[in-house]
Amino acid sequence: QVQLVESGGALVQPGGSLRLSCAVSGGSVRTYAMGWFRQPPGKERDFVAAFSRTGGYTYYRDSVKGRFTISRDYASNTVFLKMNSLKPEDTAVYFCAADQRIMTSSLQLPTQWDYWGQGTQVTVSS
Questions:
Q1: Contact 34, 50 (CB under 8 A)
Q2: Alpha carbon distance 59, 53 (integer Å)
Q3: If I label 98, which of 47, 65, 72, 105 is the partner at 20 to 30 A Cα–Cα?
C-alpha cells in the first residue's frame, strides 16, 4: 500500500518562500507519476504540478509557472514543491498524489490519481 505524508506547510508573508515535502512509502518516486494539488477554502481541488510517469517530464498550472518547482530525491523517496514569490491566492491545503498507471493527458485531473496524502496547510498573509 502506497502511503504519502506531506509536511512543510506554514504561515508565510506575501513574497515569501516555502518548500513542501512528500515522503513516499510502498512505491517509488522514480517509477510513479507524482503530483501536487491544492484546495482553497470552499473550493475544488486543483492541479499544481506533476512529474509524468514516464520520461520524468514536469507540468505546472499556468499561475505557478516560474514560481513553483517540483523535484524528487530518489535516495529518500521524497517529492518536493519549492514555492517562491508566494501570493495570498496561493493559500490552500496542499496535497501530494501518486499513481502508477496515470496517463500524461490525465495528470491535471484529481479523480484520476490513486493515492493521496493527508494535506498540509499553506497560508499566505501579512
A1: yes
A2: 12
A3: 65
**What pLDDT score does 55 carry?**
81
In the chain, the DSSP E strands lie at 3-7, 11-12, 18-25, 33-39, 46-51, 58-60, 68-73, 78-83, 92-99, 115-116, 120-124
Task: Look over the chain and give the mean of its residue pLDDT values, rounded to a whole number.
Answer: 96
Q: Report whether 101 contacts 29 (CB < 8 A).
A: no
C-alpha span between 32 and 9 (Å, rounded): 23
Q: Return d(Cα 99, Cα 111) in angstroms, integer.
A: 11
